C-alpha cells in the first residue's frame, strides 16, 4: 500500500453525525439538461421588475443551499425590498430546467451549470457565490473495504452517482483522468441521494459512491464505522489536493443573462441579501443558525442539525464573491470530465459577475 493509500485508509471524516434519515432528502442530478425546454409563459416570466421573484432551489433542505432559505428566514430579502418566493425543486438540474423554461427567475444551484449552458450556446450568469466547495466525498462501499484503496482500484468497478451527467458523475470522471485512467475504466450507476443512495452503498449495490452530507453521516451511523474515503473535497486540504485551489464555487444564485441585464437592481438586492446572510452565518454558531431555520429541516434533532451547520460554515463563502482561481478550477473540471464542454472556447467572464455583490 502506498503512503497516500495508507493516509486515505485512515482518513477521518469531518465529525460523522448521526442525523436521522428524514434529513437526507434526495438530491437529483446536478448536471445541465441536454437542451433547454421550449419557452414557457410561467408565472415568473415577467422577471423581477417590482413583482415577485421566484427562486428555484436545487433541493431546499440540502445544506449546500442553506443560505438561500436562511436569507428568507432572517427577512433579508424583504429588507432589501424584494418579494421572494422559494420553490423547492429537489435537484439542481430540475431547478435549472425550470429557469430555462421560464417558470422561475433565478436558480439556487451550482456554478458549473453556467459553463455547461454556455457550451450549449445558452447564456446564464452567476451573481453571488455561496459555496467554496462542492461538498463531495468519494467513499468505498463496506463490502469492498480492504480491496479498493485508491482511485486505480476503481478499474472495472461500479461507482454510484446521483445521476449520469451530474456533478457527482463529473467528479468521478475528473478523478479517473487525474489518475491517468480512461473515463470508461469505471462504470457509473444512478443511485440518487438520500435514503436510496445510503441503501445502495450499505447493501453493496455499488462498489463505491460519491455522496454529500447529510448522506455520509447517515451511512456512517448505519454501518457503525467511518467509511473508507478515497477523495474528499469538503475540506480545504481536500480542495487543494484534488483541484489545486482554495476555492471551487458551487452553490450560488444564477439567472439568464438577459434577465440579469433587465433586472440589475433586483439582482443586486438579492445578492446583498445573500451576502448579509453569509456574514450572519460567519458571525453566529451552528445552534443559533439552526434556530432560525424551518423546524422541519432539522429532522427532529436540532442539536445534530446544529453540528452539521457548524461544519458547513467551513465550506461557505465569506463575502459572496467568486475568485479567479475558483472559476478556473471549475472550468478545468468540466473540460476534463464533460465532453459537452471539452475544448470549446468558454468565456468565463460571461459566466459570473461580482459587480452586483459589492
Short overview:
The chain has a 5-stranded mixed β-sheet with strand order 2-1-3-10-4, sandwiched between helices. A 5-stranded mixed β-sheet has the order 7-6-8-5-9, with helices on both faces.
Could you characterize the architecture of this molecule?
The chain has 358 residues and is an alpha/beta fold. 37% of the residues lie in helices and 13% in strands. It has 14 helices and ten strands. It has helices at residues 3-9, 66-73, 76-79, 92-101, 112-119, 167-178, 195-202, 215-223, 236-243, 257-262, 264-283, 286-292, 302-312, 324-337; strands spanning 53-57, 84-88, 106-110, 124-129, 137-140, 158-161, 187-190, 208-211, 229-232, 251-256. Strands 2-1-3-10-4 form a five-stranded mixed beta sheet, with helices on both faces. Strands 7-6-8-5-9 form a five-stranded mixed beta sheet, sandwiched between helices. Helix 6 links the parallel strand 6 (158-161) and strand 7 (187-190). Helix 6 (167-178) packs across helix 14, helix 7 runs parallel beside helix 8 (215-223) and helix 12 (286-292) crosses helix 13. Residues 1-43 and 45-49 have low confidence and may be disordered.
Strand and helix map with partners:
Blueprint: H1 3-9, E1 53-57, H2 66-73, H3 76-79, E2 84-88, H4 92-101, E3 106-110, H5 112-119, E4 124-129, E5 137-140, E6 158-161, H6 167-178, E7 187-190, H7 195-202, E8 208-211, H8 215-223, E9 229-232, H9 236-243, E10 251-256, H10 257-262, H11 264-283, H12 286-292, H13 302-312, H14 324-337
Parallel strand pairs: 1-2, 1-3, 6-7, 6-8
Antiparallel strand pairs: 3-10, 4-10, 5-8, 5-9
Helix pairs in contact: 2-11, 6-14, 7-8, 12-13
